[in-house]
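Dear support,

Our group has been running a series of protein-ligand predictions, and this particular one with flavin-adenine dinucleotide is the one our PI (initials K.S.) wants archived with full inputs and outputs. We had some confusion internally about which version of the output was final, so please treat the block below as the authoritative record. The input we submitted was:
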Amino acid sequence: MSEKIVIVGNGMAGARLASELHARGGDRKVTVLGAEPHRAYNRIMLSTLLAGKIGEPDVELAEVAGQGVDLRFGVTATAIDRAARTVATDDGDRIAYDHLVLATGSRALVPPLPGLDGPELPPRIVPFRTLDDCRRILAVAEGARRVLVLGGGLLGLEAARGLAARGLDVAVVHPVPYLMERQLDPAGAAVLAGTLAGLGVTTHLAVAATAVAADADGVRLDLADGRSLHADLLVLSCGVRPDTTLAAAAGLAVERGVLVDDRMRTSDRRISAIGDCVQHDGTVTGLVAPAWAQARVVAQVLTGEDPLARYRPRPPVTRLKAAGIDLAAMGDPGGTDGDSEGEELTFADPARGTYARLRITDERLTGAILLGDNPAVGTVIQLFDRGQPVPSDRRALLLGRALGVAPAEPAATPALMPDAATVCQCNNVSKGALVACWRSGARTVDAVVAGTRAGTGCGSCRDAVAGIVGWLSDVDSVEVAR
Ligand SMILES: Cc1cc2nc3c(=O)[nH]c(=O)nc-3n(C[C@H](O)[C@H](O)[C@H](O)COP(=O)(O)OP(=O)(O)OC[C@H]3O[C@@H](n4cnc5c(N)ncnc54)[C@H](O)[C@@H]3O)c2cc1C
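Confirmed final output from the archive:
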């Protein structure tokens, strides 16, 4: 009898797992339950959709369909019976499993403010997590002039920039004294605030919201300093919480996320968990690269391709996806994790919106913030990602001047990139993998993207991939093979 695998959640992790299982063939039945009413989509491109740079069809994820895969949209798993090995759904079904995978993701946090405590959010107040949220924001924005964004983290700023690009007057309210405090330092955040101001986004920092009132005419946000801000739309971007409801109700071990081991197994060996809903080695990630790496591990283990496959987390690199703002942040640039030995380099040119801070320990980059035009950003990410030694002339990294270091942008001179260099962070695709795909017959950017998945996550490496394909097309294949 064929093995029955049930995946709860048709988001970025669940949909990827279904596709990884499908790609490995075999005789198994895979059922995917997705609470959202539509096909799987690329959630991280919602910022770009909000900014009007792409349309809804561009965020759809290629789906597995066909024999052995049963995709059910708009169906929520309501309970797990671990003894009977069944999942109950809100449409009255009970689905048997041999192995269950939880990919329930996370939910947007709604702050506990007066005015937001009802069962439904008032009109004109929308969180930013799902495609439906995005549709609602755009519908309200249609007739709006002024927008407030509560939360100055990465997503709040992406939303703010996107809405400002649509000609709206946008203000961000952030309770912390500086923006994106998880990735930036105060000096870098000040430069970012200046860049945002130039793009039509005002920031109110170090002030908490105390209450919200909304009606059909508009929204009022009361602040702790006594001011009240008025707008036509309020976007909530106050963080996310792993969705562990189902797991906790089933008695699985849960802390901030569903606890998993290196093979993504929960406290029940018949149940795995992947993506935003998990806590691995004390960490909850909230990023797509780990979610996709975890999906791969589960597929390898469940299909027997590599029963001993293990998830090995890689240090995350954060990039802001907002037109007119180049920002990359990684590691611990401030040395706050106790590294007092490290070497620290900073450069700031606020008038030009440029800021760079690097931390180097034992000739290796342990953290960096690069804001504004810095042609070395690709090189810095590579050095950080691979833990390679930094060049002796540090100015090359700090200022982006090619002073004896290899290429600034990977795609600019791909010939000099090491094969092991990671080009696509979301899918962990190296230059070597792109070259191998080209050698195996893919001759266009689309074919190489389809063959390797490079560029299908946040899309920030698309130019680099195109540069490498262009270089491969130009050079003699014999030379490349050498
Ligand atoms: C606007 C935006 C921009 C982002 N940008 C980036 C970025 O640039 N880089 C990056 O790495 N990450 C980014 N992220 C985060 C990234 O989207 C998440 O890390 C990723 O989506 C996690 O995938 P997941 O499948 O675990 O969760 P999700 O994508 O949230 O999917 C979980 C799915 O499970 C469903 N579900 C939950 N419970 C049930 C149930 N009981 N029954 C059935 N279905 C259920 C949910 O409805 C949802 O569809 C961004 C997120 C947002 C919102």
